[in-house]
UniProtKB/TrEMBL annotation:
It comes from the Bacteria. The keyword DNA-binding applies. This is LacI family DNA-binding transcriptional regulator. Keywords: DNA-binding, Transcription, Transcription regulation. The lineage of its organism: Bacteria, Bacillati, Actinomycetota, Actinomycetes, Micromonosporales. SMART domains: HTH_LACI (SM00354). One of its GO terms (molecular function) is DNA binding. The keyword DNA-binding applies. CDD domains: HTH_LacI (cd01392), PBP1_LacI_sugar_binding-like (cd06267). PROSITE patterns: HTH_LACI_2 (PS50932). Residues 6-60 form the HTH lacI-type domain. It comes from Plantactinospora siamensis. InterPro entries: HTH_LacI, LacI/GalR-like_sensor, Lambda_DNA-bd_dom_sf, Peripla_BP_I.
Amino acid sequence: MGNSRVTVREIARLAGVSVATVSRVSNGTGQVSPEMRRRVLEAIEKHGYRPDHLGRALAARRHGALGLVFPGLSGPYFTELIQGFESEAVPSQASVHILCTHLREDSDAQVLEMGRRVDGVAVIGGTISDTALSRLAEMVPVVVVAGEAPGGVPSIRVENTASMAALTRHLLVDHGLRDLVFVGNPEGSPDVTQRWTGFLDAHRSLGLRPPAAPVAVGLQQADGVLAAERLLRAGRGVRRPEGVVCANDETALGVLVGALGRGLRVPQDVVITGFDDAPMAALVTPGLTTVRQPVRDLAAEAARIVLTAVDRPGAPAPGDLVLPTEPVLRRSCGCPPPLTTGGTGK
């Protein structure tokens, strides 16, 4: 057990070094000669010294931790976000605390409580209210990921509207499809809202009448299977759409499972597209036409924004950053596969 009565100053005196040297050794940071490190470690071991991390954090106003706030953790998108965020946080010796709100009524309070225990927070857009975001930004540096932020709070997201419009126009113009449906629920999701807007824009730019509303389901594969049950069931008086444009790849993969399970051919009987370019999009048969977004880069840049704000208090915020996306055409829309495939996504 550590001896809480032994202070860092006493260890420094016993080892014949400065307090800063003891801190560097105990934290594993900075340059310390082998001889000094040996003396400090011997003094620490002999007297059972354990640094008071909480006291150090309060004194330096640093916890050595960053917060990452998600609505939930299901699916590959959030895995990619975590890995991208950690790629910047870990080399900076910051731990990552993850909070999943599941969009509960007390989400705002949960995130504000987290703000008292970390040095900065990245929040997925639509997870908490703008009022809570503004209050959080008064406590610690904040960046909104995959969404828009209230004034003064930086944000980073991918381009959704133009790329979804380009993909939809490809189906309407290059493949001559007319009866398309959009699967995804814009409610509470800035990304899905922008993708639905792009879907509508493509129709209107061609003088075509789009569907009045999307097929509002969630973003998981099971939701895509349910959407397929609703859209692709056989029977008299049931008109099957020519194409199903999904808000993300997970939903599209679920629709694909549902279509193939009903004996439908993709793309001959129905075209299916997604958004993200998740790893599975290139591996299924037929390969999934989708939009590639740089999820890991998105999260890594979010971590860099927070770390910079923590290290340079008072520095100007970077504002709103938008990373580019691009359609990836594969067999599920009737195109030959691209020469190179792969990617990550939501």
